[in-house]
Amino acid sequence: MPFVLAKFSTYKAFAEANVASVLGDKMPRTCELQANTLASTVFFNRGDRFEAVPLPREAQFAPAFAVCVADMDGDGSEDVFLGQNFFATQPETPRLDAGRGLWLKGDGRGNLTPVPGQESGVKVYGEQRGAALGDYDGDGRVDLVVTQNGAETKLFHNVSARPGLRVKLKGPPGNPQGIGAQIRLGFGRRSGTVREIHAGSGYWSQDSAVQVLGTPESPTGIWIRWPGGKSTTGPVPAGAKEISVDEGGQVTVRR
């Protein structure tokens, strides 16, 4: 509001002013908005509406910056990781440091259960910011990297998950990684969860374009909806650990 500088000649005068005196004749043209919750919340897509569900209590202990979604234990249900904490508060406000990074285990029905750090192995006490997921060692398990303001970056090697299927898309020219595509494995007559390949994953981060999809049982097929709306389906050969799929739906076993 550039007009504030012309209206108040000192910081003291501005600090003692109320909203009406600051806005002056602009006050009648303003509208008042109220927040009825400050909880970190997940919005479930129910087809014709979004259902707002506050995250568990442990997710409310500190602000969350990074939000990552993947099947971190390989059970076929998507999980959530939150990078937490915020230290740059006003002098009169204590820093918000009660989080140490939180894994929320999903059950495939919309329920998210906090996993304690002593069980998950994720304990980051600094001011967490960007975080990203990727299988950096190619073992079929989703690994996690978490950055911090003014502290070291943490890399967490996943050693306990059930290995999943690594999937790499071969998109069209201009989008070789298939950003925006949706992927779903089939298990006979049953379909798995949908995973979207995205170019950003929270605070200045990007997950790996090579997806690790949970395989609680042997997958029989893969469905992909490509950017632009085209859908393809193809078989997943038995015993495959990593496949690539081109825009025509051709599946190639990489190993």
Structure commentary:
The protein has 4 helices and 17 strands. It has 255 residues and is mainly β. It has 3 domains: 1-33, no CATH class; 43-161, no CATH class; 164-254, Sandwich (Immunoglobulin-like), CATH 2.60.40. A hairpin with an 8-residue loop joins β3 (64-70) and β4. The protein is elongated, with a radius of gyration of 23 Å. The N and C termini lie far apart (59 Å). 29% of the residues are buried.
Q: Topology, please?
A:
Layout: H1 3-7, H2 11-16, H3 19-23, E1 41-45, E2 50-54, E3 64-70, E4 79-84, E5 102-106, E6 112-115, H4 117-120, E7 128-134, E8 143-148, E9 151-156, E10 165-170, E11 182-187, E12 190-196, E13 211-213, E14 221-225, E15 231-235, E16 242-246, E17 251-253
Parallel strand pairs: 10-16
Antiparallel strand pairs: 1-2, 3-4, 4-5, 5-6, 7-8, 8-9, 10-13, 11-12, 11-14, 14-15, 16-17
